[in-house]
Design goal:
heterodimer, A: 228 residues, mainly alpha, MetI-like fold, B: alpha/beta, Rossmann fold, six-stranded mixed β-sheet, two-stranded antiparallel ribbon
C-alpha cells in the first residue's frame, strides 16, 4: 500500500502522458457538463421555486424523482439513443466526449433544477413581497431572485462538478473508456485495478481526491467571502 | 379611490373583514390598530402581494406601490437597490439624480456603495423608504415606514413623505401603530381592530 503511494506520486511528478491525458478528458467532460447543467437548471429552478400555478408540485415531484436517476440507467438510455439502432445514430455521439457530456447533463440537470428550486422556494416570499409590492417587472424580479441565491448557486455548481467527477456508470457505457479518447479518471481507476496496475490506479485516485479537496477549499473560500 | 369590501381567511379564521371604503384622491390616510389587527394584510391585498378571498378584481394593482414592513434589502449596493425601482418615465440620468437626492435626504449617501444586505435595521428601512419613493405611484402604501428608524431621522422621513405626496399628488395609505404619527401626517385615520374597521 505504502509502496503504491510512493510510486503513485512518482508517476504524477514524472508527467506521465497517459495520466495527464485522462485528467484532461475528465476536466473537459466534468467542467462542460456541470456548467451547461447549471446554466439551464438555475433559471428553470428559479422559475419553478417562484411559480404558483397548479401542477407546480407535480413538476417538483417529477424533478426530485429524476434527481435519483441511477447513472447506469441514464447511460443505457443514452446508449440506446446514440447507438446504431437509436434515433440519434446519425450524430455519431457514442464513444465520444460529447456523448458523455450529454449523459452527464441528463444526470445533473434535475439536481441543478431541484437544488435551485428548494432554495428559491424558501427565499421567494420575502423577495416577492418587495418586487410585487414595488411593481418591479417579472424579468428583473427573476434576475434579483437569482442574484440573491448566487452563493447557493456556486455551492450547487461545485456539488454538480464533484458529482460529475465521481460518476462512473453512465460515462463508461456511453464513452466506453477508450484510451486517449474517452477514458476518464473513474473508468481508468476501474480498468487499472482490474488489470492489477495499482500504481496508476492509486495515482489517479490521489489526483481525484486532491480535486475533491480543491472543490471544498473553493467552497469554503466563497463561504468566507459571504460572511465578510 | 374606492377600496372594495375585502375578506381574508387564514386556515378557516377570518383575519380581515374590511367594508367598502372611499378615500379622497390625493389624500394621506393613516391605517392604525394593534398588532395582528389586519393592517399589513390589507396593505398587501391592495398592492397585489397576496389575494383576498373575494373583491380583488376591483383593485387597480398596477397603480399601487407597497413598501413592506420587512425592509428587505437585495444583495446589491444601496444605490443599486434604489435603481431597481427606477421610474420608466424618466431617463437614466434623472433616475440616478433622484436616487442621489433621496439618499442625501435620508443620510444614506456615505453608504451608497455598501452592500445593502449588511446594513443595520434602521439603515435598511431608510433605504427601503427611499427605494419606494423612486417611482411615482397613483397610490402608495407605506407599511410602518419609520418603525425601526432613529428618533432624529423620523421627522426627516415624515417630511419626505409629505413632499412626495405634494409632488406626485398620489394617495398615500400609511400603516402605523403610532397614533401620534398618524395625527401628524394624515388627514384621516382609519382604525382596524381584529380585522374590522372600528370607530
Amino acid at each position: 500500500m505504502g509502496q503504491a503511494f510512493i510510486e503513485a506520486f512518482e508517476l504524477i511528478l514524472s508527467g506521465d502522458r497517459i495520466v495527464w491525458q485522462i485528467i484532461g478528458v475528465t476536466l473537459e467532460m466534468t467542467l462542460i457538463s456541470s456548467f451547461v447543467a447549471i446554466l439551464i437548471g438555475v433559471p428553470i429552478g428559479a422559475w419553478l421555486g417562484n411559480a404558483t400555478f397548479r401542477g407546480r408540485r407535480v413538476l417538483v415531484i417529477i424533478d426530485r424523482a429524476f434527481m435519483g436517476l441511477p447513472p447506469v440507467v441514464c447511460g443505457l438510455f443514452c446508449y440506446l439513443l446514440f447507438s446504431g439502432v437509436g434515433p440519434l445514430r446519425g450524430l455519431h455521439l457514442l464513444y465520444t466526449v460529447t456523448g458523455m457530456v450529454i449523459a452527464q447533463i441528463i444526470l445533473l440537470l434535475p439536481m441543478a433544477v431541484g437544488m435551485t428550486e428548494s432554495h428559491v422556494f424558501a427565499a421567494a416570499p420575502v423577495i416577492n413581497e418587495t418586487t410585487r409590492g414595488l411593481k418591479i417587472g417579472k424579468t428583473r424580479s427573476l434576475f434579483l431572485t437569482i442574484n440573491e441565491s448566487r452563493y447557493h448557486i456556486i455551492s450547487t455548481y461545485l456539488f454538480l462538478w464533484g458529482r460529475a467527477m465521481a460518476e462512473v456508470g453512465a460515462v463508461s457505457i456511453v464513452g466506453g473508456a477508450i484510451m486517449f479518447k474517452t477514458n476518464v479518471m473513474t473508468t481508468a481507476i476501474m480498468n487499472y485495478t482490474s488489470m492489477g496496475n495499482f500504481k496508476s490506479a492509486m495515482a489517479l485516485g490521489i489526483i481525484l481526491l486532491f480535486l475533491v479537496f480543491l472543490l471544498n477549499i473553493i467552497g469554503a473560500l466563497l463561504q468566507g467571502d459571504r460572511n465578510k | 379611490m374606492i377600496i372594495p369590501a375585502l375578506k381574508k381567511t387564514y386556515k378557516d379564521q377570518l383575519v380581515l373583514d374590511f367594508p367598502k371604503t372611499e378615500i379622497a384622491d390625493g389624500s394621506l390616510v393613516a391605517l392604525c390598530g394593534p398588532n395582528g389587527s389586519g393592517k399589513s394584510t390589507l396593505g398587501k391585498i391592495l398592492a397585489g402581494v397576496i389575494k383576498a378571498d373575494d373583491g380583488c378584481e376591483k383593485i387597480p394593482y398596477e397603480q399601487v406601490g407597497y413598501m413592506s414592513q420587512q425592509a428587505f434589502a437585495f444583495r446589491l449596493s444601496v444605490k443599486t437597490n434604489l435603481l431597481q425601482n427606477k421610474d420608466s418615465a424618466l431617463s437614466r440620468e434623472e433616475n440616478e439624480a433622484r436616487a442621489e437626492k433621496l439618499m442625501k435626504i435620508l443620510q444614506l449617501s456615505e453608504l451608497a456603495k455598501k452592500n445593502a444586505a449588511k446594513l443595520s435595521g434602521g439603515q435598511k428601512q431608510r433605504m427601503s423608504l427611499a427605494r419606494a419613493l423612486m417611482k411615482d405611484y397613483k397610490v402608495l402604501i407605506l407599511d410602518e415606514p419609520t418603525a425601526s428608524m432613529d428618533l432624529e431621522i423620523i421627522p426627516v422621513a415624515e417630511q419626505l413623505i409629505r413632499d412626495y405626496q405634494e409632488r406626485t399628488n398620489c394617495t398615500i395609505l400609511l400603516i402605523t401603530h403610532s397614533l401620534d404619527q398618524a395625527e401628524r401626517l394624515a388627514s384621516r385615520i382609519l382604525y382596524l381592530d381584529e380585522g374590522k374597521l372600528s370607530n
